[in-house]
Amino acid sequence: MMAKGFRVLAGAAMAVVVWSPGSWAQQLADCNPATANCVQVSVGSPQGTFRPGDVVTVPIQFTQGSDDGQTGGVDAIAAVAFSLDISGLELASCTLNGATCETAGEDSELRKRGLTDSIRPGPAFSNYDVRVENTCCDPGSSKPCLCPGAGQQRASHVNIVAFGPRVENIQPGIQIPTLPSDKVLDVDLKVSSGTSGNVRLHVFNEVSDTEATKPAFTAFLSVGDTEAVDQTACRGTEFDTPDCAERGANTSKVHVTDGQLTVTGPPACVGDCDGDGEVSLGEVQRAFNIFLGTATLDTCSAADGNGDGEVSLGEVQVAFN
Predict the structure, then answer these.
(1) pLDDT in tens, 111-129
(2) Among 43, 3, 32, which residue's Cα sits nearest to residue 19?
(3) Distance CA 254, CA 38 (A)
(4) Vertex 88, ends 184 and 112: CA angle to 5°?
(5) Pick from 209, 259, 250: which is nearest to 232 by CA?
(6) Which of 80, 162, 249, 268 sits in a 20 to 30 Å window from 62, CA-based?
(7) In whole angstroms, what is the distance from residue 124 CA to residue 18 CA?
(8) H helices then E strands: how many in the chain?
């Protein structure tokens, strides 16, 4: 199967997901859960109001469709891939089980899975393979990532895939399991300097987005079932099945619920880089280095007290006091 976000190579023993951005030309009609049998992907909305430097936890939920009476189908989804827009936010932590992207090793499993301390699979997904494809930047590549090093660009989206079972749990003859209807993961995100207003946590999909509006290096949401069939949508006459005859041509089989959070005002504690409610001498030094121009604002966005994208000597003084 070839889908918009991934390719599922399925057999009696395993499933492998390969990130493969692409597109179809036709935009899709939404799948309405009130009237149709839909797979659902939902992004949580943190409650309250937040300030630059605050850390919020965003849960992402997956729900299978109901029994459709056929082999495979929307009630037997085995893999899901999507890009989550986090513009105005960034990962709260880039630590990979005590390592960094630089020290983990280019071919290490830590880098391949991309699960920093800020990205935690839900309990029901503990035996499934949950990965973030763009945590670390590839050496020599201009492609942005969530945890950039010197001279690299920070990504404003998270590329997520989930399938099962995890490679180390595969046994000969095992059948590819369906994904649980449960929380896929929690993501801890820090509000970036200069962010204000309502921040949309959007899953890019072919109902609300087009190839022209979708950012580079992202992929449309895509799902595949246990039979390695793309179950993302009914596309024209491509799928001549009773399921698609009921839905109509160019109709999505997946309903997406975006999240949102509200950002207002300056950081609660100017200079509190790690959001622990205190400003250490090291954090004051970071703020001073940003003022001098020897460090970038993304090393401590909370040092920018008024959200103007710069750190003044007065803001360094506020952090010190």
Answers:
(1) 999 999 999 999 999 989 9
(2) 3
(3) 5
(4) 45
(5) 250
(6) 249
(7) 22
(8) 4, 17
